[in-house]
Amino acid sequence: MSAESQVLPSPTLGRWLAGILVATALWLLAYSNLSAFADAFIAALGLTRETHFGEAVHFFIYDTPKVLLLLTGIVFVMGIVQTFFAPERTRALLSGKRVGVGNVLSATLGIVTPFCSCSAVPLFIGFLSAGVPLGVTFSFLISAPMVNEVALVLLFGMFGWKVAALYLGMGLLVAIVAGFVIGELKMERHLEDWVQKIHAGHVDPSVGLNLGWIERFEAGWSHVRQIVGKVWPYILLGIGLGAAIHGYVPEDFMASFMGKDVWWAVPAAVVLGVPMYTNAAGIIPIVEALIGKGAALGTVLAFMMAVIALSAPEMIILRKALKPRLIATFAGVVAIGILLVGYVFNLVI
């Protein structure tokens, strides 16, 4: 009997596996039906997406569970992964002379992860929790929303391969250089205290070697309670602001000063883009409409980059993990890169 009990999985492990299987199925079901749920929700309220208010409500109902689902899933997985790799080892792999390589890999990863800025924040926090250097995580945070296959395919279809290729190259350059600069500034002390504790990795280097799967699952769930429990109010606030602005995009007003005859058009477009919030797929139609109204391509692309890489909702969510000085540095470095992109496009196209 005792031999059988040693071979059979413990009931506790069985319950964990069953719970994770059910939770995964529910997660996939919920995530794949977010749009239908948002449509049904506004229909039940008697609203339509043809109105500003209806579009804003739809955006909020769609994006809130999407970001929370991503945050919960990614943080749980990263919590388990962290039990296999000590943060010290992870940081050593991507630090020192390899930081530049880490920035390139991180920015490239962003191309194949079609997240909006707020959706990229969960993976950004997950990277930090795994001990990945701060500058490398910022390269991903910038690249994921700004340079992804959705934006590239839409730009290719509307403006041709030269515009798409130049956007890809400039966007990656912004993400890599900005992340590298932030990393070189050594601003880890400007992470919030609770993030610093996770990022510092005050654990034994041999962590994970003697853990069973029950302990690993418990570590993942502990990560969820610790991180999601702290961040979710900021997510609601950030997406609420983004939804309000998303429903009231003043295209005619913006196009009126987005020509390339005045030097301040590009910085003005960037400043205007920061309070707004949407993903690459959502902003491309606005880009097309602005260009159709006579706006310059470089100015409009600078506006697009600001919307999807420097959105105010993203900053609100990041505020729970980053101190104001680090947020200001991130915004400033990225804004300089975006201004460069805008001026280059206006110069060559």
Q: How do the helices and strands follow one another from N- to C-terminus?
A: HHHHHHHHHHHHHHHHHH
In DSSP terms, counting alpha (H) and pi (I) runs of 4 or more, how many helices?
18
Q: Can you give the mean pLDDT?
A: 76
Which band does the percent of strand residues land in? under 5%
Any idea how many domains? 1
Could you describe the largest sheet, including whether it forms a barrel? Answer: none
The CA-CA distance between the termini, in Å, is 78 Å
Secondary-structure-derived class: mainly alpha
Radius of gyration: 22 Å
Query: How many E-type strands?
Result: 0
Shape verdict: globular
Helix content percent band:
over 70%
Low-confidence stretches: 1-11, 202-208
Question: How would you sum up this structure, described in words?
Answer:
The chain is mostly helical and 349 residues long. It has one domain. The chain is built from 18 helices and no strands. It starts with a helix and ends with a helix. The N terminus is likely disordered.
Task: Please describe the topology of this protein.
Blueprint: H1 2-7, H2 11-32, H3 34-44, H4 52-82, H5 87-94, H6 99-111, H7 117-129, H8 134-146, H9 149-159, H10 161-184, H11 193-200, H12 213-246, H13 251-255, H14 265-273, H15 280-292, H16 297-309, H17 312-318, H18 324-348
Helix pairs in contact: 3-4, 4-7, 4-12, 6-8, 6-10, 7-8, 8-10, 8-16, 9-10, 9-15, 10-18, 12-17, 14-16, 15-16, 16-18
